[in-house]
Amino acid sequence: MTAVRERTAPAGTAQRGPRSYAVLWAMPPLLMVLVVAVYPLVRVCLESVRGESTWSKMLASASFREALWRTVAIAVTSTAGCLVLGTFLAIVLAFVPFPGSRMIGRCIDTVLALPSFLITLAFTFLYGTAGLLNAAISLATGEASPMVNFLYTPAGVIAAEITFFTPFVVRSLLASFAVLPRQHLDAAASLGASPWRVLRSVVMPEAWPALVAGGGLVLLLSLNEFGIVLFTGAKGVTTLPVLIYTKGIVTFDLPGAAAVATVQIGLSLTLYGLYRVSFARAMASRRKETPGVAVEPA
Q1: pLDDT band at 296; cut points 50, 70, 90
Q2: Using N-to-C axis directions, what is the helix angle for 204-223 and 154-178, rounded to 10°?
Q3: Residue 256 and residue 208 in contact, taking contact as beta carbons nearer than 8 Å
Q4: CA end-to-end span of the chain, whole Å?
Q5: Tens of pLDDT along 200-214?
Q6: pLDDT digits (tens, 9 = 90+) for 19-44
Q7: Which end of the chain has the lower number of beta carbons within 10 A, N or C?
Q8: Distance from C-alpha of 56 to C-alpha of 120, rounded to nearest angstrom
């Protein structure tokens, strides 16, 4: 027994060493996060309370309430459009074989590498007042005034955001469909299930976590989107990021901009918390159905 204790004691001592080194290795990234991310956010929140009536003026401002409502409405509508369009595209690319499907998938992935304002610039060339579509309509009808003028409205902003953020949903769903057991589909088809029923009863329940992950990511990104709204130049479309830019850069109202930014931070963190809770519940229910499955959010 004494020999066994003497042999096991150094092993326990050796195991405590790497843990202490792990704490030291964790310090540099922790300090980097505190300096780069946490400190600026804290400064913004502190800046918002410098003025005595900054928050009361902001909450009483009609422009702030309009920007808050417009931000939430555009983000929710864009997310819903991305979920519908992204689900349709992912199902077609994954389960409908046709020539060129791989190339189309690569083209959709390419959008993820582009800045958002390029989508708005492309929309301007296509659907602007002097774009290709209005030029073609003018040649066909002889009308001098542009017939298509939706780009400079909230609908144009939503269309541009759906175009830019849909690949995030498509990529999440394609990754989920890739690990879907083929035996489940063959078994459902052999039992006489129609393609629609296979999709509804077999495919979509397995893709639910990926749908939650993609939709949550799109909601967060569209909530904080600035480039598309700014480059669209839509009249009367003022979101919270645009209001922050106007107060901080145009009018030099730094406490007011910090107050609006604090609301933006709180709204983003709240949505992120709801996203994590929803994803955790979706994964918990999936683990009960299929034990041993471990999936991380996209």
Answers
A1: very low
A2: 140
A3: no
A4: 52
A5: 777 777 788 888 888
A6: 667 777 878 888 888 888 888 888 88
A7: N
A8: 36
Residues in the chain: 298
